Amino acid sequence: MRYALINRFLLIIVILNYGGILFSQISPGDLAQPHAHLEGMSNCTKCHILGEKVSNDKCLDCHKELKVRIDQQKGYHSSAEIKGKECVKCHSDHHGRKFEMIRFDKADFNHSLTGYELLGAHGKKECKDCHKSEFISDQDIRKKKYTYLGLNTTCLTCHSDYHQKTLASDCASCHDFENFKPASKFDHDKAKYQLLGKHKEVECSKCHKTEIRNSVNFQQFTGIEFASCTNCHQDVHNNKLGKNCIQCHSEESFHVIKGLNNFDHSKTDYPLEGKHKNVDCKLCHKTNYTDPLWTNRCTNCHSDYHKKQFVKQDVSPDCSDCHSVNSFTGSSYTIEKHNVSQFPLNGSHSATPCFVCHKKESRWEFREIGLRCIDCHENIHEPYLDKKFYPEASCQSCHGESRWSDIQFDHDKTGFKLEGAHQKETCRSCHFKKNDLGKVHQQFTDLASSCTNCHTDIHYNQFDKNGITHCNECHDFNSWKASKFDHNTTEFILDGAHQQVACNKCHKPLLKQQPSYVLYKIKNFRCEDCHK
Fold first, then answer.
1. What is the pTM of this model?
2. 119-128 contacts: CB < 8 A, separation 24 or more?
3. Could you tell me if 422 and 481 lie in one domain?
4. Which residue in 127, 267, 288, 421 could disulfide with 247, CB within 3.0 to 4.6 Å?
């Protein structure tokens, strides 16, 4: 085995050194034009495994767009007929520059193997009719001179959008594969407007007009008004009976008139609901029943209780936005509607009764009642807190809307970073103090940052420097233990046996002092001062 490998290695060296002489004898023939750039002995291993056959993996290393399809189990090369075959079985090379590596009997080709069955008129088309570069969206595939890849199966890949994006792109939901006209699958009963009576006999073009749009013929199928009969039919009554013709007429015939004695008001533009059902007709139809009434606004009949608070551009909103026809008492104005107003209800505000904000006195007010926190809430921090920490007196700079006690404030902005045990304290424990009379007093801007401002100096000024005790020289922010204290930085360095002596052996409490405290600042360091 070892000698075989050595011989093979020597053969490679000979081939590389004398490639120009041997190539014409070793190569089976010229490569086809698409592979011409791979001509030459040094490129053999780009397609061939040394000493073996052509490799599928090497083919797919170059033909990446085909590999993607195979990995996705899509397309002709993933079909049961082709899957597992060697590429070279169908696409051999070395047959000359003009050899067609992609060739098959187009007349007998089973297109269903590609995953797209040719139905109807598609089966009569030539391959070249669909496999065009302009139908390929992938730019890399489009650059190829010969390819059947790159097409997707949507209709608009090959066909122009006659409906110009006014309808869904799934053409097959209305059309079959034989002809685009008529739309054999379309069912008008499933449309927004069902055809009833005489409407079933009307030609499509009578309602769906053809016009020129974007320089081409366009027939409109969507966006056609059909809410009222007068969208298509002339109102011979000149709107005296309203726009709802079916209150008297039917789709079967305009000449068949329904009796007015049993007039169904629900079929008009304004159905009678709630308390309106009990209102005498004459209270609304003051002259003739055929005279048009403007029912688009409640204020056409009812006075504006809110005195134009909701008027915008001289138009009052519909009362039904907040009230029902059953009674003006109460409101159907929801939190969801309030949340799209200038003041969304968040947190505890969503549980606050309407009258708390909107009826502070005898009259309901809904406009210009304020949007800032201080418009409803007392600013208890004025003047104790610097305004730079809550611009425009916005409580939300620190407080949440769910509970006042939920505080979100970056204390680093104050210049006093909260560390260790300080992070566990509430704001009130430092900033709200009781004075000698027991009254709570706020301290924010006037609160000093020295430790003794909040903590009792149990050393009674022994460690004062210029009137200030810097506790953090010995203590950290996690506990009162003097974890940072180093005796060797004092005037008396501990060495020898002194290192093993407990602190209280030298630093004793001064019991005669009131109050008593431990003496740490010892003035005399002679041996006889401690050793008798």
1. 0.42
2. 119/177, 120/176, 120/177, 120/178, 121/177, 121/178, 121/179, 122/177
3. no
4. 267
